[in-house]
Structures are given as C-alpha cells and as structure tokens.
Amino acid sequence: MRRLRRFVHLVLLCPLSKGMQSRLPGIKVKYLFLAWLGIFVGSWVVYMHYSSYSELCKGHVCQMIICDQYKKGIISGSSCKDLCEDHTLVLQQCLSSSPAHQVYGGLWKDKEIIIKCGIEEALKVESNPDSGPRRELILFDKPTRGTSMDEFKEMLTNFLKANLGDQTSLSVLVSRIINMADVNGDGRVSLAEAKSIWALLQLNEFLLMLSLHEKEHTSRLLGHCGDLYITEKTPHVSLYGSRIPHFLKPFLPSPIHRVVNQWFAPAWPRRAKIAIGLLEFVEEIFHGTYGNFFICETNFQNVGYNENYDFKMIDLRNVATEMSIRRFLKGRHCEQNADCTFGKDCTATCDKLMKQCKSDMIQPNLAKVCTLLQDYLLYGTPADLKEELQKQLRTCMTLSGLASQMEVHHSLVLNNLKTLLWKKISNTKYS
User: What's the CA gap between 414 and 410, in Å, rounded?
Assistant: First the structure.
C-alpha cells in the first residue's frame, strides 16, 4: 500500500517544481488524483462525442450528392432550389443515429425544420468505388425515359397495392402523390420529378407519412428534393422531454437512467395528455384509411410531443404495413416464435408442426404501448387513481394479437384507459 501511495505521489507531484510543492503544503495526493481523474473522464467524454459525431454525421455528403444530381437534371423537388442554389435551406444540428440515415435539424425560410436523407448506397460506393454502379443508377432508375403518364399512374397503383393492400381509397393517394411530384404545377410530371417521387416512396417512413397525412399525431411533410425530405420539427423528441447522449447510455445503470428520465419528465397531468395522444395514434393505425400498421420497435426515442403537449410520432421507420409483414412471414421456415420476428419486436407465432410462420402477431400495438406507458404514467400518479390505472395497464399489457381478440376486446380496453385518464385531467388547465 505504501509503495502504491509513493507511486501515485511521484506521478502526480513530480511534474510540479519543489517551489510549487512548498507553496501548496495542504494539497493531498487524493485530491490531485481526483483532479487528474476528472480531467481524464472529461477528455474521454469529449473524445467520444466528437468521434461518434464524425462517424454518424455526414450531412455534407448528403447535400453534395443531392445537389450534384439536381444540377445534372436527374432529380427534382420542391426544395431543391432553396437547398442547392439559394441556400435558404440550411442543415444545422446533427440528430442522426445511423450513418446510412441522416437526420438534421435545420432552418428553412426562418422556420425550424427536420431534414432526412438516406446515403446507404453512397457509403457502400465510397468504401469500395469498384463495388457497383453509382447511386443515381441504383436509386433513380425508375421510371425510365418514355414512360407515359398512364403507365406511371399504374406503377404507383401497383406499388401501393403491394405495400398497403387493395384499399378502395388508393386512387386518392395516387392523385396526392402525382400532385406532390408536379413541383412546378404545370399539370405534367417530368422524368426528374417522377424519379424523385418514386425514390421517396421506397422509403418506409415517407410512404407512411403520406398514408397517415390526415392524422394529427404524425409530422407534416413540408418539401423534398430527390430522396431528401423535410418535415416539421417536434420540440420534444422523447416522452420524458430529455434524451441522454447515446454514447453515455451503456455506462448508466438502468436505475440511474430511470431517475434521470423522471427528473426531466413533465408533470403527471401533462404526461396523461401525451399518453392519450399515443393511445389515439394506436387507434388511428388500426384499420386506418390505408390498412393496418404495426409498431415494430416501441421505445421512448421514437415518440415525443409538441409545445402544447400533443403527442407526435417522431420516427415512423419502425412502423410497418400489414402487407410488408405478411410478405416477410409468408412461407418462412421457423423452429420457434423468435424466428418469425419482423423488425425488432413484431413477432408472429410459429406453427411448430408445419415449421412455418403464421400471420397473427403475438403482441399487438396496444399491449406494447401499455408496457411503455407503465413506468411513464405510474410515477407520480394521483393516489385516488393509482390502483385503477395499474389494473387497467396490466389488462392492456396481457392483450393477445390473435385475430379473434383484435376487434371488440382491444377497442374496449383502449377506450377504458383513455376515459380514465381524460376524466382526471378534463376541466383543468391541462386539458
């Protein structure tokens, strides 16, 4: 022990001159050690922040590719001129969680917005220039030159049927897509306009934003350029109102993580209002105008709320259409239920006799959302409500995804939960 103390003393005090040491007689080794430790930890945090930033944030690459293709006449869009010529659309704060999917906060005409752009193919080509064709040949390959307007409409209809199902209202959605593609409003769709809107439709989130555009709980689309698109900004991008930096999460024990979340969480009546909005969103995507949708990753980072505490779905990339899941499960071999998982947690049952996946989800959207809301709502719940709220959340979390239970039972549980929360906050300033 004495040797260890002497070693630490030499490491920490030797850099100081004897004159300096004599002026600081009260300083003990342990305090200097703590100071050095603080400097080390601070330097590590700064290093991790900037190393992760350089790896995740490639907005300059995204803008360079998009503007290069726009200037070549390959793509078009309502925001291209502002991004590439006038520079009134500016990328500012990096919010990306993956290098292949760039997300930035920015300014457009003095308004705060969110900019999203996929550069997966560009990263593949960048890492191996001889590995394949250039990005514009991969992504903007359809429709081809010579495609008529009627043929393009048929392309859109067939694509929507394959991804949303044969819904009676698809013609309305096709018309909306055509109007969005017609950037200059001349009643015709150019090849660059058609290629841009077709590339955007291949992005799951963009397709869902179009399909759910009438719903108040999804962000509004504001513009696009090629496969880059712009949405309104949601001020709070987590249900708890704060987001712990991703590089710190592995080092924080879950109890500390929970305490931090609860510390920054809105007041309970505000959380109740946000929860009601989330339950309404679940209701909207179940038998909606364009079919059923499933939430395939439920966590606090995909959901948020605005300045009025109205719920907003932040990230729709983890919401899937029923047709997409059915296509994934059809004829899929399985040994157990886990083999029938689409995304992170959209798990269907496995027919162990036939060794094939069935189409029924084990856990429906409502059960996943109630699991998410359990900690969120029970913390700080009014005493006269807590027992009944716990009971209803337990009932909700045990719901099955079997088709026989999906209709009446789910609607009853959802409405009971919404009513319980609304009664508590109605006729107050929080409603």
Answer: 6
C-alpha span between 238 and 310 (Å, rounded): 12
- Read off the tokens for 204: 């799951």
User: Which residue is listed with tokens 């700064």?
Assistant: 46
Give kind and range of the element (H or E) at residue 231. Answer: strand 228-232
Detail the DSSP E strand segments found in 233-390: 293-295, 303-305, 311-313, 319-321, 341-342, 346-351, 356-361
Tens of pLDDT, residues 269-282: 999 999 999 999 99
Q: Which of 372, 311, 365 is nearest to 343 (CA)?
A: 365
**Residue 86: exposed, middle, or buried by beta-carbon count in 10 A (0-12, 13-18, 19+)?**
exposed
- Residue 79 near residue 89 (C-beta atoms within 8 A): yes
Counting beta carbons within 10 angstroms of the beta carbon of residue 391, is it exposed (0 to 12), middle (13 to 18) or buried (19 or more)?
Answer: exposed
**Which of 338, 336, 294 is closest to 319 using CA atoms?**
294
In contact, 90 and 107? CB cutoff 8 Å: yes
What DSSP designation does 333 have?
Answer: B
* Token output for 75: 């793509």
In the predicted model, what is the mean pLDDT of residues 349-371? 93
Q: What is the dihedral of CA 264, 265, 267, 268, to 10 degrees?
A: -150
Tokens of 147: 């495609």
pTM recorded for the entire structure: 0.80
105-131, pLDDT tens digit by residue? 999 988 999 999 987 644 443 444 443
Q: List phi, psi (to 5°) of 281.
A: -65, -40
Distance CA 419, CA 258 (A): 27
Q: Which tokens go with 252?
A: 């924080």
Decide if 270 contacts 430 (C-beta within 8 A). Answer: yes
Question: At residue 359, what are phi and psi to the nearest 5 degrees?
Answer: -100, -10
In whole angstroms, what is the distance from residue 415 CA to residue 426 CA? Answer: 15
338 Cβ neighbours under 8 A, 6+ residues apart = 347
| C-alpha 100 chain-centroid distance | 14
